Amino acid sequence: MVRQQRELYRSDSWSIEGRILSISKPWVRPIARGKARGMYEFGAKLSLSLVDGMAEVYRLSWDSYNECKDLKGQIERYKQRYGRYPEAVCADKIYRTRENLQYCQEYGIRLSGPKLGRPFKDNGKNKERIREQKRIEREDESARIAVEGKFGEAKRRYTLDRIGTKLKETSETSIMMVFLVMNLMVMARRKAKAFFVSLIDKIIEMAERFKFISMWQFSAA
């Protein structure tokens, strides 16, 4: 910190690359967010994808970066895991760069958001097309919000915003463990739901069979 303060004094500047903000955690950097409650946040920055309710952390960094550069890598990882490209990617507006749009168009992937170019004229000829486009945009936005909800769930229920470890490695491990537990809970809820559904179906089947036997005995009597 002394070295950095010396450089700031000599260069007559207010900014320096890799500025240390905490002696106990020198790897933490300020991340500009521009939110109403504070212009800067301090902590790890994550690139997260959500497939069928399962969250996957693509990148964890303590430095600020532009997450739009991660889209291609996330799609290619999806291709390696599932053997095909996704039909659609519901992402934030920051991902809708020309490079990403061209990449998605090349592989037949629909990237959420309004189409480029001049919008359709609101007349009788394009009425159905405009209505269908708005419906798709609403569905994509609903799917995209689920990713934001995962961050809120991780902070509210799984202590993502209260990581108390002191080392960089242990902090990263704790963050990854949060998402691991979240995915395990998703799997557990699905197993429990399937068990209770099958149990209810079995009870209904046994009740109908008992009713049929009782009616047959009554008719025989």
Describe this protein's structure:
The chain has 221 residues and is α+β, with helices and mostly antiparallel strands. The chain has helices at 2-11, 71-82, 98-106, 127-157, 168-220; strands at 30-35, 38-42, 45-51, 54-61, 88-89, 110-111. The strands form three sheets. Strands 1-2 form a two-stranded antiparallel ribbon. A two-stranded antiparallel ribbon has the order 3-4. A hairpin with a 2-residue loop joins strand 1 and strand 2.
Question: Which features does this protein show?
Answer:
single chain; 221 residues; alpha+beta; two-stranded antiparallel sheet; 5 helices; 52% helix; flat
Write a concise synopsis of the structure shown.
The protein is α+β, with helices and mostly antiparallel strands. Helices cover 52% and strands 14% of the residues.
Structural class by SSE content? alpha+beta
Approximately what portion of the residues adopt beta-strand conformation?
5-15%
Query: What is the mean predicted local confidence, pLDDT?
Result: 81
Number of strands: 6
Q: Give, in spatial order, the strands making up the sheet with the most strands.
A: 1-2
* Computed CA radius of gyration, to the nearest angstrom: 26 Å
Percent helix, as a range, is 40-55%
| Largest β sheet strand count, sense and barrel closure | 2 strands, antiparallel
Which residue ranges are poorly predicted, with pLDDT under 50 across at least 5 consecutive positions? none
Shape: flat
Assembly type: single chain
Q: What's the tally of helices?
A: 5
